[in-house]
Structure formats: structure tokens, C-alpha cells
Specification:
With 316 residues, this protein is mostly helical. It is built from eleven helices and two strands; from the N terminus they run αααααααααββαα. 37% of the residues lie in helices and 3% in strands. Strands 1-2 form a two-stranded antiparallel ribbon. A hairpin with a 6-residue loop joins strand 1 and strand 2.
């Protein structure tokens, strides 16, 4: 599948967030905790005081400066508009503002559909990797079986065992990750595997022109031992390292220094990138990166992202 085909598949699966088709569900259904991410405490089910009558945000243009950077990073992968449509269909066009029953269904369904959409995002990505071709047929079967779940009626959504869906879909995603990471590691030149690489030229973060990128080096043995799923890499110094093929699934990378690092075929599924410095880093071939992970990191125009992701507006 070409990258353009993956972008089309994301549109077909409705995995692009479209707030114009939502009723501000994330501003009501989710709990906010006063922290560096949110300026207030707000219980689930209570509308944010910044939510307007038209379901827009009164401070959308200044969320970060107003103490709500967590809102700019959040992305439901299109679950908000999907749940809005499902709930309206089930409640005669009512929204959470109109009918307590519609509110109850909408708030409970949002996290369920968000998780289903996340699985669909990962499956669609696998089809874009030629190195994962041995599992592509299994992925198509998984997509066919998973995509209809997001359109279930509210009562069926609330009864859905998402963990069971994840257990069914997860193994094919795991196999794809192993195939892509193994192939990438195998293609790395021997010189790069053993010692720092020479300075090289690579496309810029905007996709136009080239610039001399800082040379990357393979991590020292002490660092390599830390590069594992679920690793505690909070504040880790990984600047300028060639991390090709590492499995950092679920790793804690809060505040990690990844400037200029090469993350080709690095599995970042579920990794926490809040505050990670990815300025000048190459994530264009990283695996299973979600918009919310990108939004929570600190990047710049030189940061390279997967083709289906946009640079966050707050990156400068």
C-alpha cells in the first residue's frame, strides 16, 4: 500500500478528528486534573467552562498560554464525531445537552470507540509497510472484523469487550512490528551498526530541500540495555543516536532528549512522549505513532514525521 493509499484508508475509516462533526465530547466526558497539562480540575460529565454553546472552545487559539496544553495534544482519532453520530441516531437526534440518556451513552461510548479507532489506526499502518507483507492478509481480515465495531449502537458499544478485541488484533500487530524492525536492523550498514555514522544529508522536516543532519551513532552498550518495552527512559539522554529497530513500546520517554535521533522502525506503540525533545529527530519511519504522542512532544520544523501526520501548530 502506498502512503497515499494509507491516507485514503484513514479517511474511509473516519480516523481523522473532525471537531465540526462532534458535540465537544472530550470537553465534557473526560476528567481534567489540575497539572502542567490542565489549569483546572473537572470531573467527567461536567462541561469545561470554556465550552461554548455551539460546542466550540472559547480559548481554542490560546489554549497553551491559558494553561491547557493537554487539550492541544489530545486527539480522539475521530471517535468524537463517530460517537456523536451513533448517539444521535439512537436518541432521535438528541445530544448530551438535550437528553440525560444520550449524555450517558455518549460519555460511556467515547473511550470505547477511541480504543477501537486506535486499533484501526495501527492496522492501517501495517498495510503501508512492505516488510510486513507476510501478515497483510491477516491484517485485512482484522480490519474487516474490527471496523464495524465502531458503528455499533450505544448499548452494544457499552457491552463490547475491548480487551478481547485487542487480544484478537494484537498478535498480528506484534508480528508486523517484529518483521519491520528486523528488516530495518538487517539493512543497517555494518559500519553504522558498529560505530558512529558519518554526517549525512537527509530531507528536511518540511519535505523540501535537504540539510546536513547531525551524524548519528549507535547507542553504547549501557544505553542499549535500557532500550526495551516499558523502559523507564524519563529524561534519558538519547540525542543524536541511531535507535533503528528498537522496541520502545510502552516506554516512558517523558522529557527525554531525542534531538537529532534516528527512530527508523522504532516501535513507539503506547510510548509516553510528553515533553520529549524531538527537535530535528527523524520519526518519519517510526512505528505506531499517534497524533496525540506527537502533540505531547516538543518538536520543530526540522522534525520529520510519518507522512500521515502534520506538524503541531505549537511547534516552532
Amino acid at each position: 500500500m502506498a502512503l497515499s493509499d494509507r491516507a485514503l484508508l484513514l479517511e474511509q475509516l473516519d480516523l481523522r478528528t473532525d471537531c465540526s462533526r462532534c458535540t465537544g465530547l472530550c470537553c465534557v466526558a473526560l476528567t481534567l486534573t489540575r497539572s502542567a497539562d490542565f489549569a483546572i480540575d473537572k470531573p467527567a460529565g461536567e462541561p469545561c467552562p470554556n465550552l461554548r454553546e455551539d460546542f466550540g472552545c472559547a480559548i481554542h487559539a490560546r489554549l497553551r498560554s491559558s494553561g491547557f496544553p493537554g487539550c492541544t495534544a489530545y486527539d480522539c482519532l475521530g471517535a468524537g464525531q463517530r460517537v456523536t453520530a451513533v448517539v444521535r441516531a439512537a436518541h432521535g437526534g438528541a445530544t448530551w445537552r438535550d437528553d440525560p440518556a444520550a449524555a450517558r451513552d455518549a460519555f460511556a461510548a467515547l473511550p470505547v470507540v477511541t480504543q477501537v479507532h486506535e486499533l484501526l489506526w495501527y492496522l492501517s499502518e501495517v498495510l503501508a509497510h512492505p516488510d510486513a507483507a507476510p501478515v497483510h492478509d491477516d491484517v485485512r481480515t482484522a480490519l474487516d472484523g474490527t471496523s464495524p465495531l465502531a458503528d455499533l449502537a450505544p448499548a452494544d458499544l457499552l457491552a463490547l469487550d475491548v480487551d478481547a478485541v485487542r487480544r484478537r488484533v494484537g498478535p498480528v500487530i506484534d508480528r508486523a512490528s517484529a518483521l519491520v524492525r528486523g528488516a530495518a536492523a538487517g539493512r543497517r550498514p555494518a559500519a553504522t551498526r558498529e560505530r558512529p555514522s558519518a554526517t549525512r544529508t537527509r530531507p528536511s522536516g518540511t519535505g523540501t530541500g535537504t540539510h546536513a543532519a547531525p551524524s548519528t551513532s549507535r547507542p553504547a552498550a549501557t544505553v542499549r540495555r535500557r532500550l526495551r518495552p516499558g523502559a523507564d527512559l524519563v529524561g534519558a539522554q538519547l540525542r543524536g543516536l541511531d535507535l533503528t529497530g528498537a522496541d520502545l513500546r510502552g516506554a516512558l520517554l517523558l522529557g527525554a532528549d531525542l534531538r537529532g535521533a534516528d527512530l527508523a522502525a522504532v516501535d513507539l506503540l503506547g510510548a509516553d512522549l510528553r515533553g520529549a525533545d524531538v527537535r530535528g529527530a527523524d520519526l518519519s519511519r517510526a512505528l505506531f505513532v499517534l497524533p496525540a504522542q506527537v502533540g505531547a512532544a516538543q518538536g520543530d520544523p526540522a522534525t520529520r514525521l510519518p507522512a500521515v501526520l502534520d506538524h503541531p501548530s505549537h511547534w516552532t
